[in-house]
Amino acid sequence: MAVLAVVVDARPYVLADRRASSVILPSICFTFAIALAWGVVPALAVQVVAVAVAGARMRQSVRRTFHLAVQHAVAIGAAAGVAGIVSLRIGPRPDWDDALLTIAAAGAWILARYGLAAGVARVSSHRRRRPSRRRGIEVLATAALLLLGPVVLATAQVGLAFVPLVLLALHAVHRMVRSACESERAARVDALTGLPNRRALQATVGDKHGRQRALLLLDLDRFRTVNDALGHRVGDRLLVEVARRLADVVPAHDLVVRLGGDEFAVLANRVDGAPEARRIAYHLAEALNRPFALDGLPVDVSASIGIALQGDSADDCATLLREAEAAMYDAKQRGDQVAVYGPDAAHHSPDRLALLADLRRALREDAPDDGIVLFYQPQIAIPTGEVVGVEALLRWQHPERGLVGPEELIRVAEPTPVMRLLTLRVLHDVVAQVAAWRDAGRPLRAAVNVSARDLHAGGIADRVEELLHEYALPADLLQLEITESALMADPHRVLNTITRLDRMGVAISLDDFGTGYSSLQHLRRLPLAEVKIDRSFVLGMATDRGDAAIVRSVIDLAEALGLRAVAEGVEDERTWRLLAAAGCHAAQGWFHARPMPPDDLSTWLSRYRPLVLPTLLT
């Protein structure tokens, strides 16, 4: 029995890592039997030798091997104590009482070992508690090995030739443990990169921790360009290399996770506030800035990083991810590489988070009375005074807050996945309304504002195509508007989407032109149909020479590039005259009409008479 105990511990069962509390020694099958038949002293002697063999086989430190030996010594002592109290000795002919008392001794063994391990883990704050599922695997396998011991002992008393057959049963237990561990690992590890996945992050964040932690969310910039240019196989290799580089620069006490797609996360367990978290983020960014060699081709990669801090209040994983994602999109919008989530910022306030939750609920329920409506403002051709289109403007009649304007809605929704739900809802309502106008004999082109996040996803082109087909609507009656700052932040990433929309016949308008930092090369290459001059310049052009010069320059630039120029914020006749003299194509503003619901717009159109340009100029 002693020889078998030492031999089988040359192949211990290791669960997930090599900590002493995560090791199951098959020798307990024999040492438990030895304790029941010959007492605690020989059992302890054999167990110490077996633990030494297992520690050497796993290449554990002397300290961890000692911890493992102490745990098993305490467990054998507890089992032997129970056996001594009830005078249990397994003889050649055990009865039912012996079986029940053996179960009690095995229970004492399990409670002693895992109770000691739990106490040590609680005292050591750096130890993370294991999931209950893995603990269940440990207890089940341990119980199977312990209760197999008396069976081996009884078999040995019948004939020693049958004892080696127990190795087959031990092999079955080993296979059970390994299969359970592989299943657990597959559920917590990303198949492509080998990094822990979102589920592993959730389990780690849920563990109690004595110090402040930071979650750093990394989103690779222009990764889709790599996939499109070099293929998905190279893209996958790039993700593997990114994962390897992150794992190399992140300390062992921190966790590197792949969340999916081109998103990674790092859970930093030892941070002293936002400055330290920023330092870690810039260290990660610097590591990724070095080119990756793929098939001899250097590929440059950068990442936008959002940081969320977890304090003693132990925020849940979903909250941390949401905050880190909001910070990451803040970084992208501002053109920064790193941003820290701040609960005191206006767009991170509890009030706006509550508004976002209400908006998400309204969009998902899609009730007829959810309060989400669209107003339409006419766009007028300056040379003829005719209505050439309308712009759809979002409004939300909140049941408690009242009317919420488009700026507030977009500011709240754009950094989150709610923006996609909102865009899809607006697209559907606008296409349906334009189709109704068309059927009524009044075809009007409608412009819809979309965010860069919508165009990054790429699925918006599929949805537009589906809607146009569903309502049999010509593509030239729909126009999409995107702000200059959002487009120019990452023009390559949205190029494929807007090119596809352009080929479908859907025009693309560059909104708020003049407020960002545009590249003329991008303006020349992107399939744009028009530029909209920002209202901040149009409002002041009648009184400010600088604003007037900017407006004229934008009109001349649009003319040179073959684009329509549309002026926003036209509120008086003098501005209208100046735009006409500058050669602007169209205008919208309160000088003609305010935004109005569809029914009011129909009434307005029936009464509207075009303003004849010569009359204005006389």
From TrEMBL:
Domain GGDEF span(s) in chain numbering: 211-343
Entries under SMART domains matching the protein:
EAL (SM00052), GGDEF (SM00267)
Please state every residue range assigned to the domain named EAL: 352-609
Transmembrane residues, as ranges? 23-56, 68-88, 100-123, 144-170
Kindly state which keywords UniProt assigns to this record, in alphabetical order. Membrane, Transmembrane, Transmembrane helix
Transmembrane helix among keywords:
yes
Does the record bear Nucleus in its keywords?
no
Q: What is this protein called?
A: Bifunctional diguanylate cyclase/phosphodiesterase
